[in-house]
Structures are given as C-alpha cells and as structure tokens.
Amino acid sequence: MKGMANLADRIGRIQPSATIAVSTLAAELKAQGKDIINLGSGEPDFDTPQHINDAAAAAMAAGQTRYTPVPGTVELREAVCRKLKRENDLDFKPADIVVSTGAKQAIMNLIQCVVDHGDEVVIIAPCWVSYPDMTAFCGGVAVPVLASADADYRISPEQLDAAMSAKTRLVMLNSPSNPSGAVYSRQQLADLGEVIAKYPNAIVCSDDIYEHITYEQDKACTFASANPSLADRTVVINGVSKAFAMTGWRIGYSASTPELAKAMSKVQSQTSSNACSIAQAAAQAALDGGLDCIKPMKEAFAARRARVKQALAGIEGVACPPIDGAFYAFSDASAAIKRLHANKKIEAADDKQLCRYLLEKVGVAAVPGTPFCSPGAFRISFAAADDMVDSALDRITSALS
Ligand code: PMP
Ligand code: GLU
Q1: What is the whole-number distance in angstroms between the Cα of residue 130 and the centre of ligand 2?
Q2: DSSP strand E in 217-308: where?
Q3: Neighbours of 118 (CB within 10 A)
Q4: What is the mean pLDDT of the chain?
Q5: Which atom in ligand 2 lies closest to the alpha carbon of residue 102?
Q6: In Å, how far are 120, 147, 182, 275 from 326, measured between CA atoms?
C-alpha cells in the first residue's frame, strides 16, 4: 500500500525553485536576527505605481470580485493586444491571449500543452531555474545549450543547430536573460529563427518578461517581431511583474494561436481557473497607463548596475558579463572558487559552497549558478535598495579578496 510519503514519480524529477529557496532561507535567517542582505530574489524593490493600485481599489468597489472567464477578462485581453501592437507591432486578437497567475503559469501551461513524454526542450542557457524543472515535470527532456561568458552569454546559430533535432518540440528563449542579462539584437534573433525554421516540429517560447529592463537600448526586440514567418510557431510570454513592480499581483499572459490558446485555457480551467479578478483590473491599468512610471525604476537599476559592474570587476577570479538587460549580475567565479578551496575556506570547489560561504561569512544571499545550468557562477540581483546593494558589494569584495 502506498503511504502519504510515497509521492508520484514526477515530484522526484524536480527540485524546489532555487531562487525562491535562497530568498526563503535569507528571510528565515533575518527573522532569527542575523544581519543578512538578500540579493537572492529577483523582484523590483519599488512599490507598484499609484494609478495601478487605484485601478485595483476601483475594481473592488465596483464589485469585480467574482470569477472571470478562464483566459482573463475581455478588457484585459484587449489591453494585451493593444500593448503587443503598440510596443511590438504584433497583431493578436483576444482569442489568442490567455491571462495566467504570473508568466510562470503561462509557461507551465504551454509546456503542459505541447511537450509529451520524451520530447526535447532546447533551453538557451544560462537559463531561468524553472525551465528545466517544468520540462522534467511534464516528462520532457531538457537540452540546455550553454552560452559562454566569452560570448557575452549569447549562443550562436551553429550551437542552436547542433542542439536541435526532429525531437525538439520547444525552444526556450529569454531575452533579456535571467540570469545573464544578455539581450539578443533583432538580427541575432533572425539568425536563430533561420535555424528554427528548419525544424517544423519546434515551437519557440519567447519569454519577454524583462523586455523593458534594458540599458543599451529603449527596449528589447521580441523574437516574433524579428521572425514574422515563424508567427504561427512562436508563443509570446510576458507579464506585468518586472516592468511595473507588480510581482505579488501575479499576472502574466501568453499570446499564440487561437488553437493553442484554447488548449492552454483548458489546462488552466482544470488547475486554477482565472487569475485574480482585481489583479487583472490592475494589470489593465498598467498596460494602458503608459511607460512613464517605468522610467525612474529603470534609472535606479541603471545606476546600481554601473556600481555592481565596477565592484565585481575589481574582484580577482570573478568575471561579470556586460549586463545589457534585466537586473542581475551573473558572474563566472570559477577562479575565485578554486582559490577559496585551495585556501581551505570552502569544503568543495563548487558554486553551492561559494554561496554558502558568502551567506555564512558575510551575510549575503546569492543564488548558485548550477540551477541556472551554469556551474561555477553565482547570481546577485540588484533589484534591491541602493544601500543594500552597496553594502553587499563591499561584503562580497571583502569575502573574496
Ligand atoms: N520568466 C523569467 C525569466 C523570470 O525571471 C520570471 C520571474 N519569476 C518569470 C518568467 C515569471 O514571472 P511572473 O510569474 O512573476 O510573472
Ligand atoms: N524571477 C525571479 C528570480 O529569478 C523570482 C523568483 C522566481 O520565480 O524564480 O529570482
């Protein structure tokens, strides 16, 4: 007889989210009175802009507190279509859109709908920690394609071609990238698209959640804009969490074909139904309210990015990429790890030990590179208050020097 402790096989195939695990541990240690700076979690430290909060309050007052259609209110889906036209020059109709409880659920809906047992999911890496585990949960096989730090964490079309085959069902692309900050140009996306065009079974998941957090350009180009001929094989994923400092509201969305949208909606109808009705009204106000409210946040991220880059560049054995987008510094610390191990500061020469050392020795929570498919690295988020970031940089420098 199976007891409660005998869990289904699929549970054994995944780990708890490493980003969330690090933040949870940091919060626990802080609650115990320890002096901890949490650079583990990737969420803006700003409050949600007031006009968005006001829209939520108005929705509550107007009684918008009931179930909505599973794929989201028509009003929000129309606002998503307007956003995709205005900002990305993409044509979608409300029937193509599914609003979910965060972009995270939108991505899980997609993988559940298209990946069968044994199907391969090519994941451009370093990658967000959840892609490989979501794939494994659904019985797929994750095939990471690792971009090197030397190539500024961008893969070449040849690398992509070598990883793809008739078994490839999905390609996970995230530009700007969590964790590396790499941003692909329109031409680079078109070059990757040329490779993908050769594999008719493959769908592209273009995770654009950091689209507006860019430093060298106004915003990032999305794969679909660069590859119109692959429109019926591209799923656009986006949401309001990062751009509008709305992580807790949990609103994300997918834009795809009406057939795929229907399938994703079917999955969602059997799992969570609609995303929160009040949060949907808030998200509509965010999307329709213009991008002015993003500017001060972006400026603050840009100023911190400069300080982070400068500080990391001064640490021997740590190589930080250019960080063209998102709000993370993902550094290759292989040389520093070797040195710490040789000096008997850490028990094993790996990124997990490095992050444990940073946490225990100087109270800085960072995420190891391995769950991002990039051993030897570590990620810090600079979406934290200025003084926290500065103080954490001092501490990391002293721990690693
Ligand atoms: N994609 C990437 C690359 C992310 O970093 C995140 C942040 N958690 C998400 C998707 C999901 O965002 P959310 O569920 O908050 O919309
Ligand atoms: N995307 C953020 C991060 O990478 C939030 C946590 C998560 O969902 O992974 O830290």
Answers
A1: 8
A2: 234-239, 251-255
A3: 10
A4: 96
A5: 8
A6: 27, 17, 8, 25
pLDDT, one tens digit per residue, over 167-203 is 999 999 999 999 999 999 999 999 999 999 999 999 9
CA of 60 to the centre of ligand 2 (A): 28
Q: How many CA atoms within 13 Å lie on the side-chain side of 322?
A: 15
Of 107, 128, 232, nearest in space to 175 by CA? 128
Question: Which residue's alpha carbon is nearest to atom 5 within ligand 2?
Answer: 42
Give the model's confidence band at 32: pLDDT under 50 very low, under 70 low, under 90 confident, else very high: very high
**CB 17 near ligand 2, within 6 Å:** yes
Which ligand is closest in space to the CA of residue 18? 2
Which ligand is closest to the CA of 210, given by its number?
1
- Cβ atoms < 10 Å from Cβ of 250: 20
CA of residue 62 to ligand 2 center, whole Å? 33
Say if residue 4 is exposed, middle or buried (CB neighbours under 10 Å; 0-12, 13-18, 19+). exposed
Query: How far apart are the CA of 241 and the centre of ligand 1, in A?
Result: 7
pLDDT at 268 over 90: yes
The sheet carrying 377-381 orders its strands as 328-332, 377-381, 367-368
Ligand 1 centroid from CA 190, angstroms: 24
66-79: pLDDT as tens digits: 999 999 999 999 99
Reported as a pLDDT band with limits 50, 70 and 90, residue 36 is very high
Q: Which residue has the tokens 């409050």?
A: 47
Which residue's CA is the nearest one to ligand 2's atom 4?
42
Strand 234-239 with 251-255, pairing: antiparallel
Q: Quick check: 1 pLDDT over 90?
A: no
- Res 3: pLDDT: 76
pLDDT confidence bin for 146, thresholds 50/70/90: very high
Give, to the nearest 10 degrees, the angle between helix 277-288 and helix 74-88: 30
Q: Nearest ligand, CA of residue 104?
A: 1
CB atoms within 10 A of CB 212: 21
